[in-house]
Design a protein that fits this description.
Elements lengths: L1 H22 L12 E9 L4 H16 L3 E10 L5 E8 L2 H12 L2 H12 L2 E11 L13 E9 L4 H17 L4 E10 L4 E8 L2 H12 L2 H10 L3 E11 L7
Length: 247
């Protein structure tokens, strides 16, 4: 009986401690509202790129009547060509579901945009992302070019790599080498992935800033710390379309 009681006491104690142990594995600060951003990438048939964009431009008002378009770009460099990338903002998942239902029932949108443009698309990809808690969506001071840098991080979330990553981002921005539009963390898609949307006046000013930052010991030190949590990275140079809210 004494042995059984001791075993039961240990089991109850372990249950009591379990939530405290698990809490140490939290992935970091969470946002308090449901706002998220959908990243959409369309791979287009080479001969249909212009036709696709012209059609969307003509009918964009039918789509933006239902949810906010953050930005719409064509991909200039990085990966496959004839590709467009766009970001949509939603209040929560219920909002997105309402939007998708409304668009499915919108005869004009279906007939004037979806049906004609589907024939021009080879492949579609989507990711659901949140802004990292210490990031907010910024509007660039004027028209320019954008770079989407994608960082595949080690599992663990912002609790593991967040502080070091923030220091690396701030080192570039605070020293004037570039401007950041937003830092996003993937919720659905390739997990442990961080997207950084940068802005520069031109591709040449981006290259100049990058070369200078590589020679700045403050940036080098911050980046060197952050790469300890990095698995891989890739990027794309984005050119805003004429109808993109972010220019």
């Amino acid at each position: 009986m004494l042995v059984l009681r001791s075993a039961l006491t240990r089991a109850l104690a372990s249950r009591t401690l379990a939530p405290q142990v698990c809490s140490s594995f939290a992935t970091g600060p969470r946002q308090y509202d449901g706002t998220f951003y959908e990243f959409r990438t369309y791979y287009l048939k080479p001969s249909k790129m212009n036709e696709f964009l012209e059609n969307f431009k003509k009918n964009a008002h039918l789509r933006t009547a239902h949810s906010e378009l953050v930005g719409y770009w064509s991909v200039e460099f990085g990966g496959r060509m004839n590709k467009v990338f766009h970001i949509w903002k939603y209040d929560n998942f219920a909002h997105r579901a309402e939007v998708r239902k409304a668009l499915a029932n919108c005869k004009e949108w279906q007939e004037q945009s979806i049906i004609p443009n589907l024939a021009h698309i080879d492949k579609q990809e989507t990711e659901i992302t949140y802004l990292i808690p210490w990031s907010k969506l910024e509007k660039p001071p004027k028209e320019g070019v954008y770079e989407l840098a994608v960082f595949q991080m080690k599992p663990g979330g912002p609790a593991l790599w967040g502080d070091a990553f923030k220091r690396a981002i701030n080192a570039h921005v605070n020293l004037g080498y570039t401007k950041v539009v937003g830092v996003f963390h993937t919720e659905y898609g390739e997990l442990n992935r961080v997207h950084v949307l940068w802005w520069n006046e031109s591709a040449d000013s981006r290259a100049a800033g990058r070369h200078k930052s590589h020679e700045d010991p403050r940036v080098v030190a911050a980046v060197r710390e952050s790469v300890n949590y990095l698995v891989s990275q890739q990027n794309m140079l984005l050119i805003p379309t004429s109808f993109s809210p972010l220019k």
